[in-house]
Design goal:
CATH class of the largest domain: Mainly Beta
CATH superfamily of the largest domain: Immunoglobulins
Radius of gyration: 30 Å
Number of domains: 3
Helix content: under 10%
Number of strands: 25
Length: 329
């Protein structure tokens, strides 16, 4: 007797850094000192670089003092300055000896704790140990976590922080202001990236920190898992390219990864031997009759115009030779 697969519908189930402030004091005519990064992290290093439009720095001698102690003397080049804990002030004096004349710049570097956390609004299965990735044609929520401290280490009231957001070099005024620690950013186009940065200031702007990150979209994908009646969905192993049905029925579950969910969950469609079988996150397959059979199962997930992924599965069932047909489709 010929055997077949019976497909029964199940309901759709989808479960879905750090900062500093730097101030330059003194004559800016002779040379200028810059700090990189602009907002260095506590317990990190900041690179000091000097440029000048009036002095010939190639023949000058550069002297760097940190907290009154000389840490460098030699040719003009970027110098790494060790920084302390959040809120601590590192006093730096940079002196240029050129043409028998001495020129100095004094800087005060005060690192602050600012961290940006990206929260992609995209799909991932429940209990997934990883993090959702930046989706195509979707959005990403970026949250700033800041803790500004004064020179004595006292934390400034977070409710007074002012946030200035920048996306791809453009200031986003509507998302900036006091208490606005979150911004919603559209995902970059495929194969491109998007930069997001924030400057966080305390009352009066005396304490400033900042952070930045880069967003890169990931290709969406969809995986098929076995849904065991006793153990539940077997997330520990996605099904490979082939699968054997040894019981009277098997339920399979679709898990879409990194699809945009701003407009809702991804659309899931199952195909059996090239024909639409059903839609939704789960499909139950029931071999009927006797004999051995095989079939091809495909799953397509889509959201928007570009976010689309497909996975295929070769099915086998039965023990004796023979054909099969399909009922209940």
């Amino acid at each position: 007797m010929r055997r077949a697969l019976l497909v029964s519908s199940l309901s759709l189930l989808l479960f879905l850094p750090l900062a500093a402030s730097a101030q330059a004091i003194g004559s800016m005519d002779a040379f200028t000192v810059t700090v990189d990064p602009q907002y260095p992290a506590p317990q990190s290093q900041a690179a000091l670089s000097a440029v000048s439009s009036t002095l010939d720095l190639t023949g000058a001698t550069m002297v760097v003092l940190v907290a009154g102690k000389e840490i460098y003397r030699g040719n003009v080049q970027p110098i790494a300055i060790p920084l302390g804990k959040a809120g601590s002030v590192t006093a730096v004096v940079v002196t240029m000896l050129a043409g028998g004349t001495s020129y100095s710049q004094t800087l005060s570097i005060q690192p602050q704790d600012v961290v940006l956390i990206a929260e992609p609004i995209s799909s991932s299965p429940p209990l997934y140990p990883g993090k959702s990735l930046v989706p195509l044609e979707g959005d990403v929520r970026v949250v700033a976590m800041a803790s500004l401290r004064d020179a004595k280490g006292k934390v400034v009231d977070p409710s007074t922080y002012s946030y200035a957001w920048t996306v791809d070099g453009a200031q986003i005024a509507r998302a900036s202001g006091i208490g606005k620690d979150t911004i919603l950013v559209a995902s970059p186009l495929q194969y491109r990236s998007r930069s997001v940065s924030v400057a966080v200031a305390g009352p009066g702007g005396s304490l400033v920190g900042g952070a930045a990150l880069s967003l890169t979209p990931s290709e969406p994908l969809v995986r098929i898992y076995e849904n065991d009646p006793l153990l539940g969905i077997r997330y520990e192993r996605a099904l490979p390219g082939s699968y054997s049905i040894t019981d009277t029925e098997k339920t399979l579950y679709a898990a879409p990864f990194s699809f945009p969910t701003t407009g809702g969950v991804p659309f899931l469609e199952w195909f059996l031997n090239g024909s639409t079988a059903q839609t939704g996150s789960s499909i139950t397959l029931r071999p009927t009759g006797s004999g051995e059979g095989s079939a091809s199962l495909s799953l397509t997930a889509s959201a928007g115009e570009s976010a689309r992924a497909t996975t295929d599965l070769s099915l086998s069932f039965g023990a004796a030779a023979g054909g099969f047909n399909f009922f209940g489709l």
